[in-house]
Specification:
Layout: E1 11-15, E2 21-23, E3 29-31, E4 40-48, H1 50-62, E5 92-95, E6 100-103, E7 109-118
Antiparallel strand pairs: 1-4, 2-3, 4-7, 5-7, 6-7
Length: 122
C-alpha cells in the first residue's frame, strides 16, 4: 500500500466534503451513508530540497497521477493532535492534478499538492 511521503507541510487547506443526503418533495430528507465523501486537501511545502521534491514526484508517478489511491503519512497531518478529527481512519486519497512546483534560488522548491478523498480506493 502506497503512503504519501513523510514530509510535514508548512500549510494545509481542508474541505470537509459532503454527507450523501437527498431531499424529496415536502422536505423529507434521506441519509444514504454516514461517511463523508469528496473531502479535499491542499498541502503546501516551502523550500524543499531536490531530494525531498523527488519523493513527491516519484509518489505522484507511482500512483499513475490521479489513478491510484493512497494513505497520507502522519507527517502530512503534522500540527493536528489526531487526523481522525478531520477524516475517518483509513481514508484514502487521490491526486486531483500534478504537484505544482515553483523553483527557488539555491535549488529549493516550493510545491502545492491537491488531493481528494475516495471511498474504498475508488
Amino acid at each position: 500500500m502506497a503512503t504519501f511521503p513523510a514530509l510535514a507541510p508548512v500549510g494545509r487547506r481542508y474541505s470537509f466534503g459532503t454527507v450523501p443526503v437527498t431531499v424529496e418533495p415536502g422536505g423529507v430528507r434521506f441519509l444514504h451513508d454516514t461517511q463523508r465523501s469528496g473531502c479535499s486537501l491542499e498541502l503546501q511545502y516551502a523550500a524543499l530540497t531536490q531530494a525531498e521534491m523527488q519523493l513527491i514526484r516519484n509518489h505522484y508517478r507511482g500512483q499513475d497521477g490521479g489513478h491510484g489511491s493512497f494513505e497520507l503519512s502522519t507527517e502530512a497531518w503534522a500540527g493536528h493532535t489526531s487526523m481522525t478529527d478531520l477524516v475517518p481512519a483509513g481514508t484514502r486519497w487521490v491526486y486531483t492534478g500534478p504537484p505544482e512546483e515553483q523553483q527557488r534560488r539555491g535549488g529549493f522548491v516550493d510545491v502545492g499538492v491537491s488531493l481528494r478523498s475516495v471511498i474504498d480506493g475508488a
